[in-house]
């Protein structure tokens, strides 16, 4: 019932829906509608109630919605520990390809290498459950496809110069706009699911805590719609994932990267490597020319461009 109510409110955008209309549509009494609304407000949903009925509070980017959209289904949570955990549970329970879990705020947002990811209101914090028909050794294609599609989406919507940084971040003017974190589960020699967690600084102010981060709001000088970012990106990703086996994602990704040619520092759980990023090979590994002129192939890690450590 909760999901149905949120769907109704979300579809009505900021229009009021009367208690009678709700009760007819949902097949429950007006008192029951009122009780559900009270509970939703207690859970943190931004709902206006007036003699005209109920509506989601007028906010330009209207994120608070839960709906079915083509093959994907979007679940909104006002607050979560981490969307990664919720998405993992849902994926195990059989949630379908392209199911999205979004949280307005995360109390335990996670970054790569077990770092904390600050997730204040106004950002876009979500995890997409993907169930591609791929063997685990090709899962890198999904992660590179996600960062590539997101950079393209942000450039198209806001005319900014978003560039991908190995392995999966997105930078603008060397400042971090987006972080991606991916978790995979396999069964036999196939992927059961790859959950791609994405944190985008949209209308929040990350600069206060992270001097090397930036938000879209700062870049374009106004609040923007998170809903539009999410839906445009999902369309782009869905198209990209079709026939992904045949696509050379790494070549497309390389057209959009700012890492190649840069002096970099790469932190893994146990090591730090430094040198010049020469290339990204066809498996997504970074080819590094180290300071002693030897070449190293790095398959994971957090990469910092050395001019500003972003
Ligand atoms: C990184 O740059 O270290 C990756 C950051 C990934 C953050 C996102 S926000 C949504 C999802 N839930 C999390 O707890 N983390 C990812």
What is the element layout, followed by pairings?
Layout: H1 2-11, H2 19-26, H3 30-43, E1 47-50, E2 53-56, E3 67-69, E4 72-80, H4 83-92, E5 99-106, E6 124-130, H5 140-158, E7 162-165, E8 169-172, E9 175-187, E10 190-200, H6 216-220, H7 226-241, H8 249-254, E11 263-267, E12 272-280, E13 286-290, E14 295-298, E15 302-305
Parallel strand pairs: 4-5
Antiparallel strand pairs: 1-2, 3-4, 5-6, 6-10, 7-8, 8-9, 9-10, 11-12, 11-15, 12-13, 13-14
Bound molecules: biotin.
Features:
5-stranded antiparallel beta sheet, alpha+beta, BirA Bifunctional Protein, domain 2, 3 domains, 310 residues, Arc Repressor Mutant, subunit A, SH3 type barrels, binds biotin, 15 strands
Task: Please tell me about this protein's structure.
There is one protein chain. The protein is of the alpha+beta class and 310 residues long. The chain has 3 domains: 2-61, Winged helix-like DNA-binding domain superfamily/Winged helix DNA-binding domain (Arc Repressor Mutant, subunit A), CATH 1.10.10; 71-254, Bira Bifunctional Protein, Domain 2 (BirA Bifunctional Protein, domain 2, 2-Layer Sandwich); 263-305, SH3 type barrels. The protein is built from 8 helices and 15 strands. An 8-stranded mixed beta sheet has the order 3-4-5-6-10-9-8-7, sandwiched between helices. A 5-stranded antiparallel beta sheet has the order 14-13-12-11-15, with no helix packed on it. The radius of gyration is 21 Å and the shape is elongated. 39% of the residues are buried. The model has no long low-confidence stretch (mean pLDDT 90). Bound molecules: biotin. Residues 82-84, 106, 109-112, 115, 117, 119, 125-127, 169, 179-181, 197-199 line the site of biotin.
